[in-house]
Design brief:
Number of helices: 13
Mean pLDDT: 90
Protein name: FAD-dependent oxidoreductase
CATH superfamily of the largest domain: FAD/NAD(P)-binding domain
InterPro entries: FAD-bd (IPR002938), FAD/NAD-bd_sf (IPR036188), RIFMO-like (IPR050641)
Shape: globular
Distance between the termini: 29 Å
Largest sheet: 8 strands, mixed
Organism: Pseudomonas shahriarae
Cofactor: FAD
CATH class of the largest domain: Alpha Beta
Radius of gyration: 24 Å
CATH topology of the largest domain: FAD/NAD(P)-binding domain
Structural class: alpha+beta
Low-confidence stretches: none
Strand order of the largest sheet: 6-5-12-13-14-11-15-18
Helix content: 25-40%
Keywords: FAD, Flavoprotein, Membrane, Transmembrane, Transmembrane helix
Strand content: 25-35%
Number of domains: 3
Length: about 500
């Protein structure tokens, strides 16, 4: 019987990233997808800074930055004129190595992930569907339908459902998916066009007309239009063509369409699964949570799910942790998903709300406030921190402990950079490690050496203080670069107790 360590259902970005990280850790994976080929009509565009930080661990970040497009500004239009601009170039200066807004379309993104996965000898099994599965004493037995119509029974230690909003895995787990559906029909079009809105920046129409955003793509005159369709047209979404969408918003942005490469319509839901886990089966990505496209969070959140789950599965499968470590996946990720759905729902409802008051807020108040907000560094930084996901943290959760400086257990390690170096360089290795900024004790040096735990001691510099790091304390970092322990002492017994309490034995070589 065909057996793997982890069977992954769904080969979108979430499933592919999970397969990549597990493969890097030496885990035997199998990944299936019901489609015949990778998607070509994708909606996700933004690769957020936090995702790029984590992609350094697979040498993906620089490839994406090199082949994608950095957006210099967001422009807001009313009555056919640009009325406000929010500069985005280097908006996250000093917070991350990727202090910009990066556009890299999902179809290209998926192809890159597929190619990297094939480097590990893993290929997506296409036109293969999961029909059902059941848990056994030592794993999961899954029933698959193969491309030729034959059924295959296979086994895995764990099963991961990254199979989208209509997830078979979620239905098999009988996990509720509460939430709702927006009344608007969305459309997405990849176009060749000209006009002032095709200048490589982001443009949004705030008028009473249908919502429309113009996202720049790499290449002269290439853009992706994402808009809404209201009124009676929404009742025939399946038969809509590009000629049916409102020309009013497109004309307001002075977009002159020269060619439409593809066009698609879809509905958007805002839902979070009641549970992200059932025994040996896990939900991640759209199978676990779906929300509006506001802020470009969906794909990035699914990738975050995958990385969170990957190192924990790898630790358990390799004997580096007890199975109870897997309990932390749902705790950490479901809390963020619920907050995200609530936030994006409020933003999207404001942008697309109908009625005189909503129109006044968008067309009069927003153009007045946006430039003033953009003029304050604190406002720009808050916006970037929120959208880029660098503020995502697991404070107060089971794997997070202590405080040192301004950093809490569960935080993303702050980035500190000056002419002398970058404290993120050691994070390219996805393993447990200890960071010290300043001096540490002989006991800490000896204990880490004895237990083969990488210890990085940085000479104290002003950049570390600016980043909020504590002098002479220590930070124990998880393989996903979040802080497990923040402690102002130099006592290795704190680390020893942590590992014992959580059933973790992290003393394995970095992959």
């Amino acid at each position: 019987m065909n057996r793997s360590d982890v069977l992954i259902i769904g080969a979108g970005p979430t499933g592919l990233v999970l397969a990549l990280w597990l493969s890097k850790f030496g885990v035997q994976v199998r990944i299936i997808d019901k489609t015949a080929a990778p998607g070509t009509t994708s909606r996700a565009l933004a690769v957020q800074a936090r995702t790029l930080e984590l992609y350094r661990q697979l040498d993906l970040a620089e490839t994406i930055v090199r082949n994608g497009h950095q957006v210099a500004a967001a422009n807001f239009w009313v009555n056919g004129k640009p009325v406000a601009q929010l500069p985005l170039n280097r908006i996250g200066e000093g917070l991350t190595p990727y202090s910009f807004v990066e556009i890299f379309p999902q179809d290209q993104h998926e192809q890159l992930l597929i190619e990297r996965l094939e480097d590990y000898g893993v290929r997506v099994e296409r036109e293969t569907t999961l029909e059902s599965f059941e848990e056994t004493s030592d794993g999961v037995t899954a029933h698959l339908r193969l491309p030729d119509g034959e059924q295959e029974i296979c086994q895995a230690c764990y099963l991961a459902g990254a199979d989208g909003a209509r997830s078979v895995v979620r239905k098999n787990l009988d996990a509720g998916f509460p939430g709702g559906t927006y009344q608007q029909i969305f459309y997405v079009a990849d176009v060749q066009a000209s006009g002032p809105a095709l200048n490589g920046e982001l443009h949004l129409d705030l008028d009473e007309a249908d919502f429309l955003a113009v996202f720049p793509l790499a290449g002269k005159g290439r853009a992706r239009l994402i808009g809404t369709v209201r009124d009676e047209r929404a009742e025939r979404a399946e038969t809509l063509e590009f000629s049916d969408v409102s020309s009013r918003a497109i004309e307001h942005l002075k977009v002159h369409i020269e060619d439409v490469h593809w066009f698609s319509t879809y509905r958007v839901h805002h839902r979070v699964a009641e549970h992200f886990r059932g025994g040996r089966a896990f939900l991640l990505g759209d199978a676990a949570h779906v929300h509006s496209p506001a802020g470009g969070q969906g794909m990035n959140t699914g990738i975050g799910d995958a990385i969170n789950l990957a190192w924990k599965l790898a630790a358990v499968l390799s004997g580096g942790a007890e199975a109870k470590l897997l309990d932390s996946y749902e705790i950490e990720r479901i809390a963020f998903a619920r907050r995200l759905v609530s936030t994006t729902d409020k933003v999207f409802s404001f942008v697309t709300a109908e009625g005189r008051m909503a129109d006044l807020l968008r067309t009069r108040l927003a153009p007045f406030l946006i430039p003033r907000m953009a003029s304050f560094e604190a406002s720009r930084e808050f916006l970037f921190r929120t959208v880029s996901q660098v503020t995502l943290n697991y404070r107060g959760m089971p794997l997070s402990q202590g405080t040192a400086g301004h950093v809490h257990g569960g935080d993303r390690l702050p980035w500190a950079h000056d002419g002398e170096g970058d404290n993120y360089e050691p994070l390219r290795q996805p393993c447990w490690q200890v960071h010290v900024y300043g001096d540490t004790s002989d006991e800490m040096l000896a204990w880490c050496l004895e237990h083969h735990l990488p210890l990085h001691v940085f000479d104290w510099r002003p950049a570390f203080e600016t980043a909020g790091l504590a002098r002479n304390g220590f930070y124990l970092l998880r393989p996903d670069t979040y802080v497990a322990i923040a402690d102002s002492s130099a006592d290795p017994k704190v680390i020893e107790r942590y590992f014992k309490d959580h059933g973790i034995r992290p003393f394995l070589p970095c992959p």
